[in-house]
Design goal:
The chain has 234 residues and is mainly beta. It has helices spanning 16-19, 29-32, 34-41; strands at residues 45-46, 49-50, 55-57, 61-63, 68-69, 74-76, 79-81, 86-87, 92-93, 97-99, 104-107, 110-112, 114-116, 121-124, 127-129, 132-133, 138-139, 144-145, 156-159, 162-165, 173-175, 180-181, 186-187, 191-193, 198-199, 208-209, 214-215, 225-226, 232-233. It has a single domain, classed as UDP N-Acetylglucosamine Acyltransferase, domain 1, CATH 2.160.10.
C-alpha cells in the first residue's frame, strides 16, 4: 500500500523512472529523489514560447515544445516544464519542479518541490508545496496543499490505527489520478487522496482516503429572517 502505482497510471508517463527507482518504497519517497532526478534530466533549453514580461531565473530550466509562459509569470530553476503546458500570468514556479505535458499552472498559483503528472490543472490561486499531483487532476480555485506542520515536526501519514513517519519535515499532499478539489480546499500535511476522489469546497482533508471517496465538510447553515424594520424575527 502507498506505492506509486496505487495512485498513478505510469504506463505513459515520461518520467516513470523516478517512481520506479528502487529507493522508492512509498509514493512520497519520489519527492526525496526529485532534486537528484532533475539534475540528471535537465538539459537547459526553451522549446516553447516565453512571452515578453515573463521572468526566467537560473540556468537549469527546460520548457517543452508548445508550452507558453505568459507575461508576469516567474520560473526559477531547476525546473522542467513538459510539452503544451500553460504557465499563466502571475504564476510563481519555484525550485525543483517537474511538470508534465498539457498541464496548467494558473494565475497566482505557486508551486515548489512538486511533481505534476500529465494533464494536471492548478488554474486559479493555488499553492502546491512538496506534493505530487496525478494525471487529470483538477484543483478548484484557492486550493492549498499545506506542507508544514505548525510545530515543525516530521509529517506522519495516518491510516486507520497505523501511523507512518515519512521522515520529511515538509510534505504536502499526494493526489491520485482524476482527483478533483472544490474551491478553497486546504489539505493538511501528509494527506493522501487516492484516484477519483472528490473533495467538496471549503473542506480540509487529512490522512488517507481510498479510491472514489467523496470528502465533504460537516456544516450547518443557519438562516435568520430580518424584518422590514431591521429587527430579527425568531
Amino acid at each position: 500500500m502507498f506505492r506509486p502505482e496505487d495512485f498513478f497510471d505510469l504506463s505513459r508517463y515520461a518520467h516513470s523512472a523516478l517512481f520506479r527507482d528502487p529507493r522508492v518504497t512509498y509514493v512520497w519517497d519520489a519527492l526525496k529523489l526529485l532534486k537528484e532526478y532533475l539534475e540528471h534530466l535537465i538539459k537547459p533549453e526553451i522549446q516553447g514560447e516565453v512571452m515578453p514580461g515573463a521572468y526566467i531565473v537560473g540556468e537549469h530550466i527546460f520548457i517543452g515544445a508548445g508550452s507558453v509562459v505568459e507575461p508576469g509569470a516567474l520560473i526559477k530553476g531547476p525546473a522542467y516544464i513538459g510539452r503544451n503546458t500553460q504557465v499563466r500570468h502571475g504564476a510563481y514556479v519555484r525550485e525543483r519542479v517537474l511538470v508534465g505535458d498539457h498541464c496548467v499552472i494558473g494565475h497566482a498559483t505557486e508551486i515548489k518541490d512538486t511533481i505534476m503528472l500529465d494533464n494536471a490543472h492548478a488554474a486559479h490561486f493555488a499553492y502546491l508545496g512538496d506534493s505530487i499531483v496525478g494525471n487529470y487532476v483538477n484543483l478548484g480555485a484557492g486550493t492549498r496543499l499545506a506542507n508544514l506542520k505548525l510545530d515543525g515536526s516530521n509529517v506522519r501519514v495516518r491510516f486507520g490505527d497505523e501511523v507512518l513517519d515519512t521522515g520529511m519535515r515538509k510534505l504536502g499532499a499526494i493526489l491520485g489520478d482524476r482527483v478533483q478539489t472544490g474551491c478553497n480546499t486546504v489539505t493538511n500535511p501528509g494527506t493522501l487522496l487516492s484516484p477519483s476522489c472528490r473533495v467538496y469546497a471549503l473542506t480540509s482533508p487529512r490522512g488517507y482516503y481510498p479510491p472514489g471517496s467523496i470528502v465533504r465538510p460537516r456544516t450547518e447553515v443557519e438562516t435568520t429572517v430580518i424584518s422590514q424594520s431591521g429587527t430579527e424575527r425568531g
